[in-house]
Amino acid sequence: MSIHDSEKQVAIVILNWNGRALLEEFLPVVVKRTSPQLAEVIVADNASTDDSIAYLKENHPNVRIIRLDKNYGFAGGYNKALTEVNHQYVVLLNSDVAPAANWLEPLVAFMNNNPHAAACVPKIKDYRRPQYF
């Protein structure tokens, strides 16, 4: 089994399309605040024409890249990417999200302790105005 399979409990999948600026702003926070023992951070690229892939390769070599052959849109891109992951849990994370410290562990604990739950979501606050949900 490769490191890209279910060795890590969680796959964090971020869909990207020409979003280098968002990757530059938010991906470092995701990587910093995600336990590498628990989760694999994956960027699924919807056939970007900007330099998103070059940026990822140069600045985030530990982030897995799934390169899609064309832009499948939001739902289609995530659906295509999900065929490439084999983890117990998957987080679909928008590219403009900066999670709080220790954001993932409570979600995994909830899922582990509630086997009949199909999904859970953290409290989501506005990044620029954190007093708002």
Low-confidence stretches: 1-5
- Please summarize the sheet with the most strands: 4 strands, parallel
Helix content: 25-40%
Strand percent estimate? 15-25%
The first-to-last residue Cα distance is: 40 Å
Notes on the protein architecture:
The chain has a single domain, classed as Spore Coat Polysaccharide Biosynthesis Protein SpsA, Chain A (Alpha-Beta Complex). Helices cover 31% and strands 17% of the residues. It is built from 4 helices and 4 strands; from the N terminus they run βαβαβαβα. The protein has a 4-stranded parallel β-sheet, with helices on both faces. Strand 2 (39-45), helix 2 (52-59) and strand 3 form a beta-alpha-beta unit. Helix 1 runs parallel beside helix 2. It is globular, with a radius of gyration of 15 Å. The relative contact order is 0.21.
Key words describing this protein structure:
133 residues, alpha/beta, Spore Coat Polysaccharide Biosynthesis Protein SpsA, Chain A, 4-stranded parallel β-sheet, 17% strand
